[in-house]
Amino acid sequence: MKCDLRTFFALCLLVVGLHACTMQDHVAPRKIKLSTPEFEYTDDFKMRFKIQVDSLGDLPVTEYGILHLSFFRAQNDTDYTPRIEHGARMQFDQPVALGVNSYVYTGNAFQGKYFFFYRAYALLSDGSVSYGDIKSFTFGP
């Protein structure tokens, strides 16, 4: 009986020890940290949008750029938050890098619009999204 009790305790210690050795702390990967500086607007309707990248994080970026929502005067949409599922994408064409990344937009998505909201975004390899702060701009008076 004494031998069986010792064997039982030895097995318990072995199981607990092995379990403790195989447990690892789950560390969530750090995401890219970015912000949305003001864009530069010229009279010939070229717009230089910028993204400030302060930290690249642990997850690779698969796509990044500016999300925007533009509106005509008196348009009734009240959701002014650009998100992947709600807004148009302006994808930057250069690899993401620390510091200021910029892209010159020459399209006409804002033509005739009265105001728009925009923010930086980065799609990550795990399918998650990091966003910058939201900015807005109103054309004309």
Q: What topology emerges from the helices and strands here?
A:
Layout: H1 2-22, E1 33-35, E2 40-41, E3 47-55, E4 61-71, E5 88-91, E6 99-105, E7 115-124, E8 129-131, E9 135-138
Antiparallel strand pairs: 1-3, 2-3, 3-6, 4-5, 4-7, 7-8, 7-9
Protein name: Lipoprotein
Organism: Dyadobacter sp. 676
Signal peptide: 1-20
The coarse overall form would be: elongated
Strand content: 35-45%
Helical content band: 10-25%
* H-E order: HEEEEEEEEE
Kindly report the average pLDDT value.
84
**Rg, please?**
25 Å
Annotation, overall tally of beta strands = 9
**Major β-sheet, in short?**
5 strands, antiparallel
Helix/strand class? mainly beta
Quaternary status:
single chain
Distance between the termini: 93 Å
Low-confidence stretches: none
Total helical elements: 1
Sum up the structure in keywords.
141 residues; 15% helix; 38% strand; mainly beta
What does this protein structure show overall?
This is Lipoprotein. The protein is mainly beta. The chain contains one helix and nine strands. The chain has one helix spanning 2-22, and strands at 33-35, 40-41, 47-55, 61-71, 88-91, 99-105, 115-124, 129-131, 135-138. A hairpin with a 5-residue loop joins strand 2 (40-41) and strand 3 (47-55). The longest helix is centred in the N-terminal third of the chain and has 21 residues, at 2-22. The radius of gyration is 25 Å and the shape is elongated. The protein starts with a helix and ends with a strand. The model has no long low-confidence stretch (mean pLDDT 84).
